[in-house]
Amino acid sequence: MGRTKRLARAKATVPSANTSSKSSKPLPKKRAKKDRDSSAERSEGEGSSRLDEDPEEGRGGAQREPESVDSDALDDSDFEEKVKVQKKAQAKKKATPVKRPVKGKRKRAEESDEESGDEGGVTVIGNIVEAPKEGRVPPGRISQNTLNFLGQLADPEYNDREWFRLNVSSPVEPVFRLAEKEFSDFIEKLVPIVSEVDEEVPPLPPRDLIYRIYRDIRFSNDKTPYKKFFCATFSRTGRKTKFAGLKPGGSFLAGGGWQCEQSQLGNIRTNILRNPSRLRQVISAPAFVELFGEAKPHPKGKRQNIFGHEDALKVAPKGVDKTHKDIDLLKLRTWVVETKFTDAEVLDPNFLDHLRRVMVIMEPFVNCLNDMMTIIDDDEDGGEGANDEEDGNGEASGDDDDDD
């Protein structure tokens, strides 16, 4: 700002070297421009060097003489344009922040990049886990790698979205995708076995049978986002009657009806009240008892045969005498039998054959239960009416939905 004012004063007091003092008429534009150009060339070695000097420099010394400044050269539009460009460049440089890497993040990134090796068959690439190369099995079998992955999901430290993302983000082959495909191939081999044992079960593709690994945590106190097991279900006419679950140390195969709907439960109890002989005969068969336990409630309330589920009624259902001879069956709301397998049995190459033998023993119970859900037996021999049963005082001692 100081330079501009000083130049303006110099132009007002110093006469131009190319302007004639005798003529008061202004020169033509072309001639004036030519005179200014020649004046700028003459003062190139002298006047221009002084323009580059800082007017504030040399305070305390001898003050510069304004007469040595060529006012016509200073009034050139090119000079003003250069000053504007320089100011814009300086302002842009100040406004642009310099991005510097955070020391902590850079250090962690360097440490993760240095991680390499083969620990437990898992290769670490940075922070992303690649699927193990060893221990793989042909389609239709379960490997130890899949059990290891599910075992980690059982640990709350690993069952979170960040850890899971690292196991599905590998550009080569993610751990989760390999385990998921292995279970899908296993179910694909199991489908024809199920359809062979139970002809009413349609042979559906695995994607229609396997549950997603993501949990619905909206109404649950347990906020872990992923299941700790793989699971598939086989059903006929929309009823889920067979379950297969894969879990380290707790793999299982179950059959029956889990928490039956009110209409289904009412039909089952009506058939029991009329004639429970078929159901009693099925659950008391020697092979069934050998696999699932004795056909009566466990003294300590444990799971045994079709008994021992947590949702069973504590008292008799509404309208049923608490001393009814089939009260143990009438209290049930879940009708499921289950057998578990060790990890060694799951990893066995002949595990599918083992499942076939279990399904053959389980099938009569599943068929009986499906019939009791939909068909009311008209044969009343040995049976009693549902509305004729009362407790000892003539009052209902429980309710289907509220007593637990």
Structural class designation: alpha+beta
> What value does the average pLDDT take?
74
The rounded Rg comes to: 45 Å
Largest sheet: 4 strands, antiparallel
Instruction: State the strand order across the main sheet.
Output: 4-5-6-7
The number of helices is 15
What ranges have pLDDT less than 50 throughout 5 or more consecutive residues? 1-24, 45-74, 105-120, 380-404
How far apart lie the N and C ends?
A: 90 Å
Binned, the helix content reads 40-55%
Order of helices and strands: HHHHHHEEEHHHEEEHHHHEHH
Indicate the proportion of strand residues: 5-15%
The overall strand count is: 7
Structural shape: elongated
What can you tell me about this protein's structure?
This protein is 41% helix and 9% strand. It is an alpha+beta fold and 404 residues long. Among the domains are: 113 residues, no CATH class; 147 residues, no CATH class. The strands form two sheets. The chain has a four-stranded antiparallel β-sheet with strand order 4-5-6-7. The protein has a three-stranded antiparallel β-sheet with strand order 1-2-3, with no helix packed on it. A hairpin with a 2-residue loop joins strand 4 and strand 5. Helix 7 packs across helix 9, helix 9 crosses helix 15 and helix 11 runs antiparallel to helix 15. It is elongated, with a radius of gyration of 45 Å. The N terminus and C terminus are likely disordered.
